[in-house]
Structure prediction request, 480 residues.
Amino acid sequence: MARDERGVTPQSEDFSSWYNELVTKAQLAERGPVKGTMVIRPYGYRIWELLQAELDQRIKDTGHDNAYFPLLIPESYLKREAEHVEGFAPELAVVTHAGGKELEEPLIVRPTSETLIGEMMAKWVSSYRDLPLLLNQWANVVRWELRPRLFVRTTEFLWQEGHTAHLDEADAMRETRQMLDVYAEVARDIAAMPIVPGEKTAGERFAGAVKTFSIEGMMRDGKALQAGTSHYLGTNFASAFGIQYLSSTGQQELCHTTSWGMSTRMIGGVIMTHGDDKGLVLPPKIAPYQVVIVPITRGESADEVQEAARDLARRLKEAGIRAHVDDRPHVSPGFKFNDWEMRGVPLRLEIGPRDLAAGTALLARRLGPEGKTAIGLDAAPETLSAALDAFQAFLLQRATDFRESRTATVNSWPEFTQVVADGWARALHCGQPSCEDDIKAETAATPRCIPSEAPAESGTCVRCNAPSAYGKRVLFGRAY
Ligand SMILES: [Zn+2]
Prediction:
């Protein structure tokens, strides 16, 4: 089969076509019949399950309990928090008819669940002894999308949303930062995405939040992807829903609440952080198959080679490695190599009669050092385990180097416009929303975050020369 039938448009030619073709050809997802919806295919869903398991474990380890809340929310609930409803109004899907008649009160398909969970929290909290209340839900949400892109922006997506209630601001802020750290760890250590954690400026805050924090990853076209957010909601939702407690001194006090979410958008982030012109590249920790074994069978030794491949896969599985034997008889080894490259499998092993006689197999990596290495079959579980760890570390380093090469500290407007054309700029900014709008209109760049780890610095705004805000530089870039 010709290469161009199965390959993808090069990234450098058209990044957006590259992405869309890859998502289809790697069999991750397809468009659903309703605009903006997504069918996640088994291979894509397995990646999500692996990521989800890692995140769920960390959510539980930090003391949260999973629960489930309804999909439909009374319209009146959303209206109780003014900023929240205003922010979400354009994206809402509203149910007006059910059971064959018009409903007295329209129902909202949840875009997020602060309101409904807030109503429940008000019932469940009465004393300071009930706090903190630490909840998480794994669910789907709907936000009507006019410019959909699979995984990155879909009308319906899967996520977890954490919702917590606390005694005071200090405890709620500790929680908000803790969950940002959890997201940063999952992104870095599991998805090999070297994200930048930081606080959002006022213009980029979640509707109804006092403070919003995010992790920002750089995609291979130099754009930013917000990969997880954590919000300190102050007492905004507590006062709207009556989430209050009797303090140890007998006073009625409002709770301070938080919410935080990470979604299937992360898969879009993985694709665009690591993928190349041959297709997807998966970090081993979330690869459905970490090692694919391709038996090279000819003539009379075919059975023997197949048997050796299956035996090797069994030993790898026992060692905790997700191994798969591609024994499809009707396709050539060359086809299989291209196919697994497109689907991002980290390591590939070839076994032929000659390798088998020598007690070896040929190892090829999806990225990194070119060429194949002969490895001993006896020690294969240990060798491949180490090779997977090395591949995971290699991807993180490669993505970090790429981000650094596309990020610059800028002090003038001409430098700023040049850098944000294909990367990120660290710049001093006045903090005025009108100045942010002006920058966006001129360059399409927006403030991604005020990085947590940026050193203290002040001066004048890169755009308008007014005194800088925040006491540190802001990270600007174009974003998904
Ligand atoms: Zn300014």
